[in-house]
Specification:
By secondary structure, the protein is mainly alpha-helical. The radius of gyration is 21 Å and the shape is elongated.
Length: 179
Amino acid sequence: MFQKRRKYRFNKGQFYIDVSVLLLAYFALEAYINYVCKIVDPQKWKNEKDEFSKGKFRGTEGKYDYIVEKCGLPKLKKGERPYQSIKKVKKIRDYFTHGKLIDFKYKKIHKDGREPDIFHRPLDDLITSEKADMYFNDIQKFIIEFHENLKKSKFGDKLSSHPFKGPTSISSNSTKIKT
C-alpha cells in the first residue's frame, strides 16, 4: 500500500491516506491474532468476549500474550520496536474507534489576507509519512515473524505458509442421515 501512495506525498491529503493505511494494518494484526487464537484454543475462542475482556489476557495484546504463553514462543520486548510501533498505531486506532474528543489550543501567526494552513491536529506528531512507513513495516514484519515462530510450534501444521496468503475463513460441517 505504501509503495502506491509514495507518489502522493506532495498532496496535503497524505495524512488521511497514512491514517487509513495504518488503521487497516492494525485491523489486519487484530484479525491475524484472532485467527491464530481460534486455532490455538478453539474452546476458549468459543467464549472470546468473556475470556479476553478482563484479566491477564485482555484485548488484542492479551490474546497475543495468551498465544505466546500457550505455544512457548519468544515474547516481544515491550520497550523496543516493533512493539512500540504497534502500541502507537493502537493509540491511533483507539482514537478513531472510541471517538474521544481531545481539547487542545493552537496558535498560528499568518500574514494578513492569507489563510493559515490547517490547524495542528493532535495526531500530527504521531503520524508523519516517515513514521507511517515505519509503523506499517513494523506491523508487517511483526506478523510475519510471529507467523514463522508459530509455524515451529505444535500448531504449525494448521497454518498457511505465509500469514497474508492463507484462507480468509475457516469452515467445517458434518451431516447425519435421519433414520
